[in-house]
What we know:
Blueprint: H1 2-30, H2 38-45, H3 49-55, H4 59-82, H5 90-102, H6 107-120, H7 124-148, H8 156-180, H9 190-196, H10 200-216, H11 222-226
Helix pairs in contact: 1-2, 1-4, 2-3, 4-5, 4-6, 4-7, 5-10, 6-8, 7-8, 8-10
Amino acid sequence: MVIRQRAIQAEDKHERHHAILDAAERLLLRSPERIANVAEVADEAGLAKGTVYLYFPSKEELLLAVHERNIDGFFRALIDRLAEDRPTAIADVLALTHRHMVAPPLFLPLAARCFGLMGQSVPPEAGLAFKRRMAERLQGAGAGLERHFPELQPGDGVALLRHSYALIIGLWQVSAHARDASGCALAVDPAAAAVFAYEYPAELDRALLALWSGTVARTLPASTVSGNDAR
């Protein structure tokens, strides 16, 4: 009976944890320009504010948890794909990137915001725990990439994922800045505005394909680069 009660309690905690994250995500989707406070998240989730604090001591740690859940979805999908026996193509990885990072409206702005929070508002111990979990995800996915792309040396898979993530966030930040500033400096300088006026998904595909092809496709057949999984 004690074991059963513990199992129920663990399940309840898991459900409540995700209910809080769901509530925070809904509030972010409604007002992406601001971070909802704990009281607002508690109201949205139908919980007492003290209950939310039991799970997340601050709104910044709650925001980071929402981001981590989103990025965990990408890594789970990638690691599952790499665990399959059939070959993985670069196009497969690009398709997963679009599905889990580019298409969801919250992923990119939240990821960019969390970069700032990590060095300013998130307690060092919480930031370190997040980085450790991210390291495990990167190592698991990196090892899978090295199995599928034998050109990669040990550690190259993790490096390739790091470089890819930098491209994903960096290109989005530049394009987002250009849109935000359209009524200011760039609007009076058409030449400067044209430099930043690119279609983000297409620009990202070109950048990632160049990175991945230059890293892992030097001797691969074209079918392994293009793949069969259409986005």
